[in-house]
Amino acid sequence: MSLAFTHKPDYFLFAQLIIRHIQTYVQKNPETNQASFELRDIYELFRQDMASATTNLDGIMNIADEYQVETLDGDQKLIRRYEIDGKENKLLIDFDPAAVTALRNGRPIIPPDATVHQ
Questions:
Q1: What is the 3-state secondary structure (H, E, C) of the chain?
Q2: Are 35 and 85 in contact (CB under 8 A)?
Q3: Angle at the Cα of 8 from the Cα atoms of 45 and 24, rounded to 5 degrees
Q4: pTM, whole model, 2 decimals?
Q5: Digit-coded pLDDT (tens) for 12-60
Q6: How many whole angstroms separate alpha carbon 15 and alpha carbon 9?
Q7: Residue closest to 81 by CA, chosen among 28, 35, 45
């Protein structure tokens, strides 16, 4: 017996959504190098896809932390470190200071190459 899967998660789409959410957050909060998002908000951001906001979130963040920003010292990863805190239902993110400053100054975000990811 064989079961065909009808739904494949699109981690790259969700990573792009979270990066755009971070970009908006950084523009609205110019003095911070950290962010804390409620997992409930991530669930809404992912259009109420429960699997992506819970089980698959680590895989999505593994892609999102590969996004870079063009800085004076070369391309730097935007996300230095992230943690999914299941007890507090939060996603905690530490940004690279140089990358977040460059992002605030209008530098572009450079996505990872989707063809080389496993």
A1: CCCCCCCCCCHHHHHHHHHHHHHHHHHHCCCCCEEEEEHHHHHHHCCCCHHHHCCCHHHHHHHHCCCEEEECCEEEECEEEEEEECCCCEEEEEECHHHHHHHHCCCCEECCCCCCCC
A2: no
A3: 20
A4: 0.85
A5: 999 999 999 999 999 999 888 999 999 999 999 988 878 787 888 999 9
A6: 11
A7: 35
**Scanning the structure block, which residue is given the tokens 């906001």?**
53
Residue 11 confidence (pLDDT) above 90: no
Query: Which tokens is 64 given?
Result: 């999102």
Cβ contacts of 69 within 8 Å, gap of 6 or more? 75, 76, 78, 96, 99, 100, 102, 103, 107, 108, 109, 110
